[in-house]
Sequence to fold (347 residues):
Amino acid sequence: MSQDTLSDLLGAVRLRGAVFYYVSCWRDWAAEAPPAREIAEAVLPGAEHVMEFHMVARGSGWIAVSGQAPVRLESGDIVVVPQGDGHVMSSAPHVKPARIEAEWVFATRHEPKPMPIAFHHGDSAVGAPAPDDDADTVLVCGFLGCDLRPFNPLVAALPRLLHLPAARTGGWISRVIDQAAQESAEQRPGAGAVLERLAEMMFVDTARRYLDSLPDDATGWLAGLRDRHVGRALALLHAFPDRPWTMEELGHQVGLSRSALHERFMQFLGQPPMHYLANWRIQLGSRLLRETSRTVASIAVEVGYESEAAFARAFKRLVGLPPATWRRSMAAARGVPRVQCAGLHIE
Fold:
């Protein structure tokens, strides 16, 4: 049985990295990035949810999300904006940022990537290579996309700003940042593919380290993974979604009574185990509908439904469309050419 529930979920919601952007900064600089929903179709067409991230390859800076205190960033730090909030990256909190307009991001989405960006003594240049040997700060920036629907409990469990200081990143992540900076600067053949994989690796490790840092009284999906009983139950439901689970059987497997397991699931996840299982089954079914040509009936059986009709009713209840209709809509969306595009930009 797979115990890696986090990997199961990340695979089911199709986590994928976007292109990186190589940003060199001198003296005072600041840029305000729009909310990810305003540029999602330009940067990751087809992604239901987009998160931006920044790696500090050299120097220091600040990041600020509306309603929260600015956060200091040092060399080797990683910061992710999981909820897709607009935010400001700057050399200091008092520097007035230049607004990055969504229209500009769409207008430049066909430009070659990774895209070099330079902030030099108050001026900015986009797309033109700039020597960065003496840059005060070097950032590697990009995007991550994933599905939100039918079911993705991870995104809701993450904070608005996920900061991983260099002291907690571990040695291999520092090498990832160095490699990302080198690939972005040199733009060798295959750099885009390498950078996308590095983005995914970075996010997974950041999520794991955030999980490790949660306080003992934390709740939510990630905290549930860490709990002895809830984590075991989640692993079972993820590994064997097709089993005819009952509360009695699941409780027996994890060593809790039916009522105690229900209470513990509600405490951490805010929903009963059988409700979670139903959502997980539909998420798995949606992936098979999207990625295979199998019949709806065979998918229904694989994810734990006794009949195609039962699966169709559950699917429509959660997604809003019958499985076959949803599959056609996803196929039509895939017919739109994918264009990898903009990150941290300034006119």
In short: The chain has two domains: 5-213, 221-332. The CA atoms of residues 27 and 176 lie 26 Å apart.
